[in-house]
Write a structure and sequence with these properties.
heterodimer, A: mainly alpha, about 0% strand, B: Rossmann fold, 6-stranded parallel sheet, 10 helices
Chain lengths: ~220, ~250
């Protein structure tokens, strides 16, 4: 009886039943199932919002601890926490102060924060990815001289060169298109089919309560 | 309503249910091909304990309420499988997440492992860290952890894009053992130059079977293989019919 209560009832109530309802809501045109699906998905969104609050506390705890114990790199943690607090100010004041001119100013400040700080910093980091990828390719040539690695690098070079407007080397564009559309697409489809199967089986394990990541029992 | 999706779901459910009923508890244990991306983690846990460091497990930017939910759950199996050993060695892993919905689950897995080992008082909730909600910021934050903390091995398992290259690059600069499992082709392209211990695509979902040998995981792998064969036969059959129909 204890095993039933501790193991099966929570799993059935919180995993199997809502999971099957949402799945049925997506697969069936029945409006009632659609309504139940939307209700459960909305509930998940609310829970996720609370998870963001927990995430914020996690950031405060981790970086507060680093600053308190003067761990390596603690000044970065300090900058992070200060930036986080500063980013909170405009939206927080916006919800507290109801006067329209101040509301507008705070709205502009929030937008400016996104447009002139978060956006450009994100774009710079994304640009950095190109350099780390190039660096990895160079390292690959040095440390792993296998047939697979050489083929990988040759194809990367061919696809990159084929994307450039080089005079007299138009055949590279055709070669690039062939690589992307024939072997590339075939490989991608095989990969995605495998991923879809893995996803379905893992999801079904949770629905069958064979896999209970949320429970000890 | 997608008939193909419904058919695939029903077929998968049937195959898995039959296998779980028939071979879930008894019968010969299915043998699986070992993948270096997961098998080497035990050695790395031992090395982390000896050197007083920790394994970094990056779970990616996926959460529990998005399209990457199942990938993230599969990636969590790495933490689940490694937790007991790492904690018994007193070398808990540092787990980074890019979605806060994954953090409580990962924290719970580690806390339960401490509880099972009877050392709950040693549990440190900062072992699991929510880094940032955007994928690139998450990768940059996780790379900083790899570069500045005493990390002995870098495991990247979960929902990533090309930005995972930032984490892998930090690991390479620290000369760490790098292990990775990803489903997204962009992440695979970025990870391939950094490590040869790479679980590709569907191999990510085998983490539980690779690391624990539990029957529920190995049986579901068999179900996956059966379904793959059925899919391949269906594709070949459709192609053959199309060719014959064309003639």
């Amino acid at each position: 009886m204890t095993k039933l209560i501790r193991r099966w009832i929570p799993s059935l109530l919180f995993a199997t039943l809502p999971g099957l309802t949402v799945l049925a809501g997506y697969l069936s045109p029945d409006p009632m199932l659609g309504y139940l699906r939307d209700l459960l998905v909305e509930g998940a969104v609310i829970v996720a919002a609370f998870a963001f609050l927990l995430g914020t506390f996690n950031v405060l705890r981790v970086h507060g601890g680093k600053i308190g114990q003067r761990e390596r790199g603690w000044p970065y943690s300090l900058v992070l926490l200060i930036a986080m607090m500063v980013a909170w100010i405009p939206p927080l004041l916006q919800s507290l102060v109801q006067r329209p001119p101040i509301q507008e100013t705070l709205e502009v400040a929030t937008q400016a924060l996104f447009n002139y700080v978060i956006g450009p910093v994100g774009a710079s980091l994304a640009a950095l990815v190109v350099f780390t990828l190039t660096l990895s390719a160079f390292r690959l040539m040095r440390v792993r001289r296998s047939a697979g690695a050489i083929l990988f690098l040759l194809i990367v070079a061919l696809v990159l060169l084929g994307s450039a407007p080089l005079m007299g080397l138009e055949w590279l564009t055709s070669a690039r298109d062939w690589i992307i559309n024939v072997p590339g697409m075939a490989g991608m489809r095989g990969l995605l089919l495998g991923v879809a199967l893995g996803t379905v089986i893992t999801g079904l394990r949770v629905l069958f309560t064979s896999d209970r990541p949320h429970s000890e029992f | 309503m997608d008939v193909g999706a419904i058919l695939l779901l029903i077929l998968s459910a049937l195959v898995l249910a039959v296998l779980l009923i028939l071979r879930g508890r008894k019968g010969p244990h299915p043998r699986i091909r070992p993948l270096s991306a997961f098998r080497d983690l035990w050695e790395e846990a031992g090395y982390a304990a000896e050197s007083g460091g920790a394994i970094h497990i990056a779970l990616g930017g996926g959460g529990l309420n998005g399209e990457d939910a199942i990938t993230s759950l599969a990636a969590l199996q790495v933490v689940e499988a490694l937790a007991d050993t790492a904690i018994s060695y007193h070398a808990p892993p540092v787990v980074t997440v890019g979605d806060p919905t994954l953090a409580p689950l990962a924290e719970d897995i580690l806390r339960r492992a401490y509880e099972r080992n009877g050392i709950l008082e040693l549990y440190n909730p900062t072992s699991v860290r929510f880094v940032a909600p955007s994928p690139v910021a998450y990768a940059a934050g996780a790379a900083h952890i790899v570069a500045t903390e005493h990390i002995t091995a870098n495991m990247m398992s979960g929902a990533f894009g090309a930005e995972v290259s930032l984490i892998a690059n930090a690991g390479t600069q620290q000369d760490l053992t790098q292990l990775a499992a990803a489903a997204d082709p962009r992440a695979l392209g970025a990870l391939y130059p950094s490590t040869d211990r790479l679980a590709v695509g569907e191999e990510l979902y085998t983490a539980g079977a690779q690391m624990t040998d539990e029957r529920r995981f190995t049986v579901s792998l068999v179900a996956q293989d059966i379904l793959r064969v059925i899919l391949v036969l269906a594709i070949l059959g459709t192609a053959a019919l199309a060719i014959l129909g064309g003639w």
